[in-house]
Amino acid sequence: MPSLSSKLKVSLEVALALFAIATASANTTDTTDDAPQQPTIVDYTTSEAGNPFVDGWYADPDTAIYQGLYWVFPTSSYPYEEQTYLDAFSSPDLVHWTKYPNILTTQDVTWAKKAVWAPAPAFRNGKYYIYFGANDIQEGEPEQGVIGGIGVAVADSPQGPYVDAIGKPLIGTYNNSAQPIDQDVFIDDDGQAYIYYGGHGHANVAKLKEDMISFDTFEDGTTFKEITPNNYVEGPQMLKRNGKYYLMWSEGGWTGPDYAVSYAMADSPLGPFYQVDGTRILQQDAAVAKGSGHNGVIHVPGTDIYYIVYHRRPLSEDAGEHRVLCYDRMYFSEDGSIQPVKMLVKDNFDDGDMVGWKTYGGELDPHVVDNKLEVKSDTEDGIIVALDANFTVQTYDATIILSDSSNDVTTSAGLVFRVTDVTSGPSGAKGYYAGLSTAGRVLITILGGDGTTVFVEGVDIKAGIEYHVRVSATEDGVNVFVDDFESPVLVLSDTTYTQGTNGVAVFNTEAKFDNVTIAEAT
């Protein structure tokens, strides 16, 4: 039987571990007793069920962990006059998301008329707070009587409804030339709350009092301290890890492809923040998306697992407001520096949705059934369901289940890649198609031109069986693997098409697809 001292030692170790977990995300985690506090530990490399992880035009996400759930609070990304409300999303596992519409609207804030954006959540004293920008005031306008800036609203639950806490902007003027927008609220381990904010190339920090709706002053008697790092534009975000403070921000133009995230480090929440070469950690990827920036961070409590949550613009979208919410894993080096973030492409359809996929050709709508993408075509013309991607040299993996057991060689299902001119479906697309047929064929078709097809016959392909198909597209040609990834089933030497989108295609049959992964080959 364990001794009393052993029991006390174990109890002390458990208590210390629980305390460490509870304080790991003190700035965004509530301590109410009405729900489990710690969320499920999720260890992903990216959004395994696909990016964007929710549907709709959203931007500027910030995050929190409330009542055992992961929360994301974004801007509704529309023209300024239409930005009159905020939505929120929660998830138990970063896969299945619940939407809470209109948690705050301009009807709840009498002085806010438009450009309600960049919400920042905080929890203290049993209350939930949202800090937000509104009206997009410009320098000189406050002196002319224009009202706007950073407001604060309060609620009794994470999903609101939130109501204006003070009836006016919390910060309604320019200080140190910083536009009062893009706020982030951080509560340090000692309980001191800070608000970081600023646009127009200047960043400030201020100390919030315990009431979270008024300011304390610094030792020199000032309220706003400028902390602008090199290349700063907007969107500050504060993170603390292992005693170090990380100030993250966005640089570049928010409507352009060069929007990106950089960071600097300090030993204090007030700086000085030091930068080194290579501190831009998230930027556009010509194969995946552009305009990636204005981030939040999810830290899984009690672990060293971090995700960067951000918005980006799909490759085919040019409108400034057309932004979507995504997240990818964020890793740290041994010296504490943040490694460059790689935007990965995966979709296991476990969220029951196909956000980010578009259908071209065909009359039957694809949908997700039992966490698999089900695609049907009743003609030889076929149908393509594609992502907004532009990969060149690549490794493309997916699983395929065919439903038709006929020996008709016109029936097949498979993967399309390096495809352009996809809008009219397979008949007008240019690129490559690697397919399986229950007629015993593995084939590659060069879409466009004369539609050359090469194939091997006598392959045992059965309906209802899941096959893992891999396409390795190199500078010299294409290799197709089926279950065996050492020896390709089919090899095509062709360099007609070098880049384009990825997707799936079905011809005159029905098939299910799963576990899609696309990566640049090294």
Automatic annotation (TrEMBL):
InterPro entries membership: Glyco_hydro_43, Glyco_hydro_beta-prop_sf, Glycosyl_Hydrlase_43_Enz
Signal sequence residues: 1-26
Pfam families (alphabetical): Glyco_hydro_43
UniProt-recorded Gene Ontology molecular function terms: hydrolase activity, hydrolyzing O-glycosyl compounds
Keywords from the UniProt entry: Carbohydrate metabolism, Glycosidase, Hydrolase, Signal
GO terms classed as biological process: carbohydrate metabolic process
Keyword presence, Hydrolase: yes
Site (Important for catalytic activity, responsible for pKa modulation of the active site Glu and correct orientation of both the proton donor and substrate): D182
Family to which the UniProt record says this protein belongs: Belongs to the glycosyl hydrolase 43 family.
Listed PANTHER family: ENDO-1,4-BETA-XYLANASE, PUTATIVE (AFU_ORTHOLOGUE AFUA_2G04480)-RELATED
Protein name, entry field: Uncharacterized protein
Organism, scientific name: Didymosphaeria variabile
Lineage: Eukaryota, Fungi, Dikarya, Ascomycota, Pezizomycotina
